[in-house]
Amino acid sequence: MNELTIEEIYRAQKVLSDVARHPKIIGPTPLSDTCKIFLKPENLQHTGAFKLRGAYYKISQLTPEEREKGVIACSAGNHAQGVALAATHNGIKSLICLPAGAPISKIEATKHYGAEVCLVPGVYDDAYAKAVQLQQEKGYTFVHPFNDPKVIAGQGTIGLEILEEMPQVDAIVVPVGGGGLISGIAFAVKTLRPDIKVYGVQAAGAPSMAQSLKERQRVHLDTVSTIADGIAVKEPGDLTFDLCSKYVDDIVTVNDDEIAAAILALIEKQKLVAEGAGASAVAAAMFGKLPLEGKNVVCLVSGGNIDVNILNRVINRALLKIGRLCQLELEVTDKPGTLSQVLKVVAEQGANVLSVNHERVSASAQINACTLHLELETLNREHVERLTAALAAAGFPAK
After folding, report:
1. Using an 8 Å Cβ cutoff, are 325 and 380 in contact?
2. Which of 10, 36, 188, 193 is a plausible cystine mate for 156, CB 3.0–4.6 Å?
3. What are the tens digits of pLDDT across the range 8-56?
4. By C-alpha distance, which of 198, 213, 206 is closest to 249?
5. Catalytic pick from 36, 40, 51, 190?
6. Catalytic residue chosen out of the listed positions 289, 295, 302, 321
């Protein structure tokens, strides 16, 4: 592979100047009480994610012979759309290998941008193996989603834009899957402004780069499990691992509940729709995973292609996490008036009843007892604690 240079990133910026959108930084936002969080909203990019940048620059540098044979790629979804759009824009055939479990919205969008799609059972790494096989058989040019210097250079243009627009930035927080995005941003930023901190964030269920940096060698995870499908990568690339080792200050993890809470916060407070991967950097800043107190922090919202079919579930998960939704199970005496007594306490505490389920048959209950399942709308975690304390004081302790 060719060595990455700052000149290459500047060339990529010139190529992308009339192709990619350049979303302006938003902020400061009310997403944290301890630091000033600004947002770089790449979820507003063409195709809904930053991936267009690296894919387009890579494809723009192909030789006439490579263009004639076409390109192949693998992706959890966003890179697929970027490659499809870039190839179609340049009149090049594209074949994309996608994990069969990728969101339907991403699969259909990839087809819409002009690519042929090959669905592969498994996760990203399985799609990658299939793409390598087809590339060798057909002679396509492989457009790697992260482990390619030209792809990394394209992603690095985000770092240049942040420095140009907000020179007073103290720290940049970036979602990490295979590491192409943070490699490009960190290389550009540290080359030009080594005083600025660059932090990465991975899902706790897919911490391949975080573990690799900790063990100082690339780690291959047997399984990954997270709602942030865009960063569910089992193993980082050799190039991205080396770049992260040299230029990234730290990589932390966030769990799915924290990611869900960040998605909800972005919707409610910023009117921005982010996918799980896109919200992970915000989650790390919101939940104090990094030393950001008093700093000017730019969080990269890397994508917004969340499947609408799971958005409601994500929102409900987030509401439970922050105490806006409360689910209680109470074992009570089965006699007239008990339910009204319970609901009287709920009303006095200012909670709103969403649903009540009254269950008489229970193996663990007393013979004259029943179980109440309550779903309530509450204000926050403190409100839930006051409510459960009031119920306990009235003789209705929650399990």
Report:
1. no
2. 188
3. 999 999 999 999 999 999 999 999 999 999 999 999 999 999 999 999 9
4. 198
5. 51
6. 302
